[in-house]
């Protein structure tokens, strides 16, 4: 196995020649010595190969290299300081997978490591193909700056490196991706946004796909560019941490996604109801208005699954309090009870920042010492919605029990706001007070935080079916609701001492300016081991996410918590979902929402994702809102959300939008078990269900840059209209068979663009890919619990050879560990639909019909071996080439249906 670690003599071309002052090229790099090869690993010492260049700090003299073949498809390369003082992402935040099966991965690795010792550089290869190559570049490892460059092929197809609102396939020249969590209003392109996912997918068509995950939470600029001589590169420039790289062998895009999930964790399974439609807005004036929205949805016959409330419900915008006049406790309790009685759900927002004005949550937290502080008597203060605020320190072991307790009290099941899910926001963390935030109190006084609407008005109109409290004649009495450390750092991996934690010499391109601007000061030291905010800023949202999931689990230990967060780090999907942030009601944001959704769902393993339907900031228009309503129905997380000063945009506000919503919700709900089954698969295996076209057609070059269409599960191609005033879309059809969802008409894709026309604003083109069996609920329903009582219509869309397959996963829809479940497998071929699999979950739901697409002729023979059927149960539509057969089959045992 010696051959795996080849000593290659790279030709040393002009590394120095490119050198300009202040460039890493003038740094000496490292020499590898004491190289030891083990069974599945290699270790070496790296020593600085010349005079320190001290480019943005001071060079570390002694490093260690560890290379591990962790699985056949995963190679781990880590370069860290010999003393292990330098900060590393804590295992408590992101547990590492280690080697999966100890043994001889080196016998059969798909990718391999080779290196040159002096100066040290390395390559990662798959066969003869070089995937990663640091030759002729110098690794720079300083106390406040790391630099690593790899060469890329010409015109590479690189995806990932989020969170961003740029093109799905990233630009290849003069492009910088800055990762530093930021409260970014309007999700502007080419800036750092809320979350951080330093993984990229490098897709090389026929030659295969691989992934590179850089496990580092420090602020960084990842640059993709070309040298003057045309050589293409990608480089990491970070403010600290260690060089910790995972190479994922692919060779398909789906494989890379699954291999990434092995590192960061499989996404959390969601409850069935969570896939229903959600309504939210910032600026609901009071609980009456919230109730009226619920009522208006039902009157418009638009299925509303979950009602949400933004910060409006809070007393003076303080978390864990209610506005006593506008959202009094007894009315909130009644509202939640009403929703639950109608099989609907309720969600509110919680922010991390706690008002320091006398309130119970703050007082209890203060006693337990859970807030970030400079020392015990100097709690760090910022300014957020309620004015002066303090921030929980998620590293403090007291914080979780305090957080749990606040949830249990405030979201009290018997008398309180018994929420079904949770929305967490502002957790980058956001601070309105610019750095240096000298006097947050003064800031809060003089910077006119947005006004809170005037107190309650009487209920304006009757809401039939709601409690008396919600009727105009009822009385309006509201009740008040309850409202540092010096140490030995060696071996601790918590960060080098003596760094400038506020203004490091290397400046990342943070769109907020200096590192600490509009967030928590980066020189704050966390409780316990002593991690600094400088190193862990990018983890704040993800740590709040897992703490909040835990608090929700304490309230309802058996059920899957729905938690939607704004800020995320790699691995967040194992705990929470994500909405794409505060976008605007603009066509460019409608379009880019597709690419953003795909990145999260297929690359970052956070599949519970969606944009704010109709747009958050600015006034929407009827046309944009109608189009976004239809596109949003193919976001796993489907929520309409709007900002306070804008015109209302609930779906019932315009007849066309209401019609679009009714039509598309019917389709979404009929497809809900297909979504649920696909989502379940991803939560078990990491295999993504939402996919860019190149995931499914990796050899088809025309798909590489396509970000206008996507696959919703493996079987459905969605092609939204792209712009204002248009009633057509130029949709790309790869070489494959497709069937129009609405007409059943077959389209033979030829790797060409087809213009689909006459798409009214209430419609969206959907095509079923040949080769799939779709289990549809027989018709739409007002809530998901009603939907679960509907029977199934099985749609068979044969491929070129006349075959099709599909799956249906059934369980109780909410248990973390369902007592019983079914995995039903459908397989069609040779005139037979075979239903097999595991049948553990029995519900009195029947398969009511089977529809066979693409049938030129009516077939002769028919009959069912199990169940019953007869000739007159079959209908044939020659125009649509559809054969439909009525059946009556329980999904409790294997069956064969003959056509
Ligand atoms: C909104 O996002 C789009 C696309 O991400 C971007 O081009 C545009 O600049 C953003 N608009 C604002 C106002 O931030
Ligand atoms: C509900 O519908 C009524 C009647 O169309 C309308 O006047 C009212 O403004 C709506 N209220 C809300 C909150 O949607
Ligand atoms: C929830 O409310 C009930 C009824 O008011 C009360 O008995 C119980 O102590 C509350 N639970 C918590 C955790 O505050
Ligand atoms: C902080 O951000 C504001 C804009 O949000 C900007 O005007 C200011 O210059 C920034 N300050 C620093 C120190 O970066
Ligand atoms: C949105 O519409 C409202 C009502 O017509 C108007 O007052 C407001 O100025 C509009 N906002 C924008 C950003 O155009
Ligand atoms: C689940 O299994 C239990 C016993 O194994 C059975 O009593 C129950 O009816 C099953 N429920 C469903 C919905 O299949
Ligand atoms: C099929 O059999 C069930 C009883 O097993 C019966 O209730 C149903 O009416 C039958 N359907 C047809 C179409 O004959």
From TrEMBL:
<dbReference type="GO" id="GO:0008422">
    <property type="term" value="F:beta-glucosidase activity"/>
</dbReference>
<feature type="region of interest" description="Disordered">
    <location>
        <begin position="446"/>
        <end position="496"/>
    </location>
</feature>
<dbReference type="GO" id="GO:0005576">
    <property type="term" value="C:extracellular region"/>
</dbReference>
<keyword id="KW-0961">Cell wall biogenesis/degradation</keyword>
<dbReference type="GO" id="GO:0004558">
    <property type="term" value="F:alpha-1,4-glucosidase activity"/>
</dbReference>
<keyword id="KW-0964">Secreted</keyword>
<dbReference type="InterPro" id="IPR025887">
    <property type="entry name" value="Glyco_hydro_31_N_dom"/>
</dbReference>
<keyword id="KW-0326">Glycosidase</keyword>
<dbReference type="InterPro" id="IPR030458">
    <property type="entry name" value="Glyco_hydro_31_AS"/>
</dbReference>
<dbReference type="Pfam" id="PF13802">
    <property type="entry name" value="Gal_mutarotas_2"/>
</dbReference>
<comment type="function">
    <text>Glucosidase involved in the degradation of cellulosic biomass. Has both alpha- and beta-glucosidase activity.</text>
</comment>
<dbReference type="GO" id="GO:0030246">
    <property type="term" value="F:carbohydrate binding"/>
</dbReference>
<protein>
    <recommendedName>
        <fullName>Probable alpha/beta-glucosidase agdC</fullName>
        <ecNumber>3.2.1.20</ecNumber>
        <ecNumber>3.2.1.21</ecNumber>
    </recommendedName>
</protein>
<feature type="domain" description="Glycoside hydrolase family 31 TIM barrel">
    <location>
        <begin position="267"/>
        <end position="677"/>
    </location>
</feature>
<dbReference type="InterPro" id="IPR013780">
    <property type="entry name" value="Glyco_hydro_b"/>
</dbReference>
<feature type="domain" description="Glycosyl hydrolase family 31 C-terminal">
    <location>
        <begin position="686"/>
        <end position="774"/>
    </location>
</feature>
<dbReference type="InterPro" id="IPR000322">
    <property type="entry name" value="Glyco_hydro_31_TIM"/>
</dbReference>
<keyword id="KW-0325">Glycoprotein</keyword>
<comment type="similarity">
    <text>Belongs to the glycosyl hydrolase 31 family.</text>
</comment>
<feature type="domain" description="Glycoside hydrolase family 31 N-terminal">
    <location>
        <begin position="113"/>
        <end position="219"/>
    </location>
</feature>
<keyword id="KW-0378">Hydrolase</keyword>
<dbReference type="GO" id="GO:0071555">
    <property type="term" value="P:cell wall organization"/>
</dbReference>
<dbReference type="InterPro" id="IPR011013">
    <property type="entry name" value="Gal_mutarotase_sf_dom"/>
</dbReference>
<keyword id="KW-0732">Signal</keyword>
<keyword id="KW-0624">Polysaccharide degradation</keyword>
<feature type="compositionally biased region" description="Pro residues">
    <location>
        <begin position="450"/>
        <end position="465"/>
    </location>
</feature>
<dbReference type="InterPro" id="IPR017853">
    <property type="entry name" value="GH"/>
</dbReference>
<dbReference type="Pfam" id="PF21365">
    <property type="entry name" value="Glyco_hydro_31_3rd"/>
</dbReference>
<keyword id="KW-0119">Carbohydrate metabolism</keyword>
<feature type="signal peptide">
    <location>
        <begin position="1"/>
        <end position="15"/>
    </location>
</feature>
<dbReference type="Pfam" id="PF01055">
    <property type="entry name" value="Glyco_hydro_31_2nd"/>
</dbReference>
<dbReference type="InterPro" id="IPR048395">
    <property type="entry name" value="Glyco_hydro_31_C"/>
</dbReference>
<dbReference type="GO" id="GO:0000272">
    <property type="term" value="P:polysaccharide catabolic process"/>
</dbReference>
